[in-house]
Amino acid sequence: MSVRKSIQDVTDRIAARSALSRRDYLDRIEAAREQGVHRSALSCGNLAHGFAACSPSDKARLAGTRALNLGIVTSYNDMLSAHQPYGTYPDLIKEAARAIGATAQVAGGVPAMCDGVTQGQPGMDLSLFSRDVIAMATAIALSHNMFDAAVYLGICDKIVPGLLIGALSFGHLPGVFVPAGPMPSGLPNDEKSRVRQLYMEGKVGRAELLEAEAKSYHSPGTCTFYGTANSNQMLMEIMGLHLPGASFVNPGTPLRDALTREATRRALSLTAGGNDYTPIGHIVDEKAIVNGLVGLHATGGSTNHTLHLIAIAAAAGLHVTWQDMSDLSDAVPLLARVYPNGVADVNHFHAAGGMGFLIRELLESGHLHEDVKTVWGAGLSNYTVEAKLLENKLTFEPSPAQSGNPRILAPVSAPFSASGGLKLLTGNLGKSVIKVSAVKPGHRVVEAPARVFHSQQGLQDAFKAGELNGDVVAVVRFQGPKSVGMPELHKLTPALGVLQDRGYQVALLTDGRMSGASGKVPAAIHMTPEASDGGAISKIRDGDLIRLDADAGTLTFLGDEREFLSRTPATEDLRKEHHGMGRELFAGFRAMAGAADRGASVFG
Fold first, then answer.
1. Is 508 helix (H, G, I), strand (E, B) or coil?
2. Which terminus of the chain faces fewer neighbouring Cβ atoms within 10 Å, N or C?
3. How distant, in Å, are the alpha carbons of 83, 100, 377, 446 from that of 259?
4. Residue 251, pLDDT score
5. Integer Cα distance of 16 and 39 in angstroms
């Protein structure tokens, strides 16, 4: 299958600009592989510590030199619905490993925080930085040099990117990502959103709001809207790091358990001791990254991945830019309508044909690279299937030829839009990104006076006081990675949605984040340079006329540009935002954080 020129051109320029760093990365992981089976290099004392808690049979295997040992890196906790199912996975994985003469050990745990719990709270300031903490925790888990391969148990917003960045630092090891799946469908997401807006307008009380939220988030599994968590799962599958069809199978089902057992066997089949050595560092190349971006655009996925995929690519020696992402978005049709880009949830998407249908449509139309390595073998066409359990046996059958619901999952011949859901915005205010897949065409161009805030609370207070009844570009600044850790600003969504529903021209401009739940109000996010770096966003004043044109890809201050540029940047005393809820421990992260268009990473 040949790939379209527009896709190949972006792939080629990523490869060209990354030639030296990618070569250096591949040389490093090859040097690590050449060290051989690591347990044989450990002293007797090292090794005895490594298997002291194991059963006698596992000790015997680990004391030898031939048995394979699988590392389990887990994000399990039992507070968060998405990660609670992972509690049973280690025993399942160990059982599957022993059945083929191998062993498995929980190498370590990584933190998993939930942006849904911390929205609008001080803890949200730690959210983005948790990605890099998770990457480091993954490296610590694997640093014991006891493992021939690894499986990674993670599902939500920063967890999967952090695990993958950490895994790529051990790029010589094969690795399989193992999902837990979404919770069954509950209260429809559009109804939940309606109740949130009613609460913001004072038309329903807290009891009604909590009832709606609890009916929506109601059981183990990921949230069912298409935010960062479910975008993560799509990415891991389309990049060849999941088993085919694994992403959206519900927790606690026999099929889910069968996929986990098979993931264990597959990871152990890819080790350097066999004939099918496939390290994770070879899978994640420029073609896999482009495939991930294509999938993101085709499904209207999370804007958080304009940060995460840049950081992931960098961990594999690859340099990806927002321009690459925007150019791919122009070339990729939008094929999915999942909330907030529609009324369906991911369970409906999966039932309509899911990943197998999506990948086949994109492959056959030349939007994906087929010639890639995956954990399931060479070639992405292996993923044009759906997983089923027939007579207690895991099988993979061809995905449906037609979508089960074209209003949710469309073919390339009849897309929801000719282009994907992401645009790069440039102009005299700097650079930012915008997700337009959920923004109606009539709201994609906004020209209005600015109203400047330095916090979410400030905007909400102004809304409640009736000060925002009119056309407005709400500027919420000092929210970038160096300022306060780049929190998500979803508490703004109901207020801005109400203003838009009243007929006003409304937009948001911020150096913070909005993520996968970016909705119907146009939001220019991840503004770079950020306010704490003296970016143009720090020079905006109340009343300045701002034009956001998502169709043209521009974000502009309208007025005397010379006068605007001569302004002294605003400053803000953020010390009160740097303490409490552990935020004081992250001063070093804030100081080292890179710009948003470089992944907002502390790793350089």
1. strand
2. C
3. 17, 16, 16, 47
4. 96
5. 38
d(CA 403, CA 356): 10
CA distance 234 to 349: 11
Q: Do 313 and 436 meet the contact criterion of CB atoms below 8 Å apart?
A: no
**Contact call for residues 224 and 346 (beta carbons, < 8 A):** yes
In what side-by-side order are the strands of the sheet with 103-109? 103-109, 69-74, 149-153, 175-178
Mean pLDDT for all residues in the chain: 93
Q: What are phi and psi of 424, to 5 degrees?
A: -90, 130
Using only C-alpha atoms, the chain has a radius of gyration, in whole angstroms, of: 24
Q: 67 Cβ partners below 8 Å, 6+ apart?
A: 61, 101, 102, 103
For the stretch 352-411, pLDDT in tens is 999 999 999 999 999 999 999 999 999 999 999 999 999 999 999 999 999 999 999 999
Contact call for residues 322 and 597 (beta carbons, < 8 A): yes
Provide the percentage of residues in the chain whose pLDDT is more than 70. Answer: 98
CA distance 490 to 496: 10
DSSP per residue, 212-265: HHHHHS-SSSB-SSSSHHHHHHHHHHHTT-SPTT-TTPPTTSHHHHHHHHHHHH
10 Å CB burial of residue 326 (0-12, 13-18, 19+) is buried
Give pLDDT tens digits for 4-56: 999 999 999 999 999 999 999 999 999 999 876 567 667 788 878 888 888 88
The count of other CB atoms within 10 Å of the CB of residue 310 is 24
Q: Work out the number of other CB atoms within 10 angstroms of the CB of residue 202.
A: 8
E runs forming strands in 270-374: 373-374
The domain segmentation of the chain, as residue ranges, is 8-184+219-398, 185-218, 422-598
Q: Which residue has the tokens 């899911």?
A: 354
Q: How far apart are CA 232 and CA 235, in angstroms?
A: 5
More confident residue, 423 or 72: 72
Instruction: Please give the CATH number for the structural domain made up of 422-598.
Output: 3.50.30.80
DSSP state for residue 384 in the 8-state scheme:
S
| pTM of this structure | 0.94
- Strand ranges for 326-419 from DSSP E: 373-374, 377-378, 385-390, 393-398
Residue 150: strand pairing partners: 71, 175
N-to-C CA span, the chain: 37
- Omega of the bond leading into 340 within 30 degrees of 0 (cis): yes
**What are the pLDDT digits (tens) for 176-235?**
999 999 999 877 777 877 887 887 778 888 888 878 877 877 789 999 989 899 999 999
